[in-house]
Amino acid sequence: MKNISVIGSGTMGNGIAHLFAQHHFEVSLVDLSPDQLHKGMATIGKNMDRQIAKGTLTEADKAASLNRISPYTSLADGVNKADLVVEAATEKIEIKLDLFRQLDLLTPANAVLASNTSSISITQIAAVTQRPSQVIGMHFMNPVPVMKLVEVIRGYATSEETTRQIMDLSSQLEKVPVEVQDYPGFVANRILMPMINEAIYTLYEGVAGVSEIDTVMKLGMAHPMGPLQLADFIGLDVCLSILRVLHEGFGNPKYAPCPLLINMVAAGFKGSKSGEGFYSYPAGTKDYPVSSRFSK
Ligand code: NAD
Fold first, then answer.
1. Were 37 and a residue from 31, 144, 158, 216 both cysteine, which residue would form a disulfide, CB within 3.0 to 4.6 Å?
2. At residue 176, what are phi and psi to the nearest 5 degrees?
């Protein structure tokens, strides 16, 4: 695999493009929105500057890596040479199904089509293509250049060969791939989201405040950050939609999203990206959250 097309240049897409370019792949970065594409390219440059400041990248490597990324707003132009497409567009089923229908028509017949989805069924995505054996989940974690895990999700029809290709490719990217089957939430979010939901219930029922809950999990369980702060970083809207997938997919009331989470999302409190969630982010930065309206 040499030519990689990344669809979506948001939080995850620009990180995925960054990672592939730094590992000497030719990358086409595609986004519908020229504005997002521009922001995505700027973010890659800024993140590479951080690597330079840390001494893990040279100026020359940065220039060469950026040179390997070509931005496109046209899907057809961005995917016609692809050996692999990694789709990282907005987490909405209708957007993914529409994209995969088009990708099936626009990419070379032997191309592998991967999705970075957090929760949408790979089997369902694969079923809208004529090549379900070549469709797979390649679930990177945020921030992509830093986090080691790639959850590799085998849809019902994904072939052994496609799985092997993506496992090997992930290792080539210096990540640790873990193969999992395609059931709601896969492994990462099936375990993480109920914990976050329970933390929100603990707050909702008045058992403890935001910083108390996060402190218990940080100091008591050695988590690098508390579940409420993590929920803010992931996006409360994203957490809610993943919980809904789990709830609907398993039909089990234990996954029912906490009414407080539903209310916060309806009111536009989406976490760090909206400036307010369980914590406030007054300077629009994730780095220094301050306790918000939930403080005692
Ligand atoms: P985001 O909102 O930051 O970016 C999505 C981008 O997709 C936007 O720039 C949007 O313009 C673009 N887009 C939408 N429809 C498109 C189309 N038809 N063609 C091309 N571009 C299109 O979202 P994100 O947080 O980067 O998430 C992307 C995917 O990664 C989702 O499936 C999400 O579940 C998954 N994911 C997110 C995280 C996370 O922490 N944010 C972690 C793991 C996986």
1. 31
2. -110, 110
Query: Is the pTM value of this prediction over 0.85?
Result: yes
pLDDT tens digits, one per residue of 200-224: 999 999 999 999 999 999 999 999 9
CB of 13 closer than 6 A to ligand 1? yes
Q: Quick one: CA torsion of 201, 206, 212, 217, rounded to 10 degrees?
A: -30
User: What mean pLDDT value characterizes the chain?
Assistant: 95
Residues 6+ apart with CB under 8 A from 84: 1, 3, 4, 5, 111, 112, 113, 114, 169
Rounded Cα distance, 15 and 47, in Å: 9
Give nearest CA residue, ligand 1 atom 9: 10
Ligand 1 atom showing the smallest separation from residue 13 Cα: 26
C-beta of 7 in contact with ligand 1 (< 6 A): yes
For ligand 1, whether the C-beta of 16 sits within 6 Å is no
Please report where in the chains the tokens 């090549």 appear, as a residue: 131
Residue 15 has pLDDT above 80, yes or no: yes
Ligand 1 pocket residue status of 90, Cβ below 6 Å: yes
Q: Which residues are known catalytic residues? A: 118, 139, 151, 189
Q: What confidence tens digit (pLDDT) does each residue in 64-92 have?
A: 999 999 999 999 999 999 999 999 999 89
